[in-house]
Amino acid sequence: MIIDTTGVQAINSFSILESLKEVYGTICILVPVLILILGITIGVLVIVWLEREISAGIQQRIGPEYAGPLGILQALADGTKLLFKENLLPARGDRGLFSVGPSIAVISILLSYSVIPFSYRLILVDLSNGVFLWIAISSIAPIGLLMSGYGSNNKYSFLGGLRAAAQSISYEIPLTLCVLSISLRVISNSLSTVDIVEAQSKYGLWGWNLWRQPIGFLVFLISSLAECERLPFDLPEAEEELVAGYQTEYSGIKFGLFYVASYLNLLVSSLFVTVLYLGGWNFSIPYLFVPDLFGIKAKDEVLGTTIGIFITLAKTFLFLFISITTRWTLPRLRMDQLLNLGWKFLLPISLGNLLLTTSSQLLSL
Fold this sequence. Notes:
Layout: H1 5-58, H2 74-83, H3 95-112, H4 130-138, H5 141-151, H6 155-183, H7 193-199, H8 209-212, H9 214-227, H10 239-242, H11 252-277, H12 290-293, H13 301-327, H14 335-364
């Protein structure tokens, strides 16, 4: 029997080439995801440091200063400490729900970053309904909190989980109606985050949806704070009433996951405020493209993308500053006040805003 060695070599070369293509495709998918996760991690560390420094300034005290220069490594030190702490499990609780709850809360928020455009063409997935995907994914996080509260076999934890679910439902509806009002605008007419940003770029500062939807912006701002469970809306973990809410029985890295999830949610909400209302990566001067302003050629996309990222983050951290200062300015609401604000005030206002937007669109046809 004669074996054609040339054909065998060709087949082997073809199989090796196909394997290399598969490896290359996998790397092309994983590298952007890993870079995004690394950037998000650094962003969370910066937010924790900023919150401690701003809170210290408001309260006229010294913030973190020993861990690294200006205390910038304090959050990293805290995370390392939690990583090596013992994970305690409640004796009579549901260990499955107790362990899965924190992971669901973190993963559901991390998935929301996939539809955020950080600069021109710098987005992980550009979907035609990207904003609604964020709303759908973010509504999964309270399920993880409810699972954590129920699995802890603790009445304070369970009440905290129930409060988290009730608060999320109450403020998710006004937030969705505000997003729908933006998508119904003639100038946007899309649920893609990239299209919404580009629709605001023509007139610079005056093209922002902040001026077209001022009522929606205020409702969205309040609903975002409530979704992040920030003061004055931190009822699910109110210390005076529920010890620490759904986090009461947690320790070690699982407690750290809840801590990280709160800041991840705050960062993603700030980014969506920037994208939906503040023009995203666009500069604020009308009819002026940022690369042209700095004399950047069209071929030099790296520098232009870097400037776009800087502008997006600058707007994002402006909203973060507002959220942090609000924490030390307003007192905590009662649970009945929280629900009344969501159902009796924000919901009718957001519905009226949606009706007004739809009417203006019909009259302009």
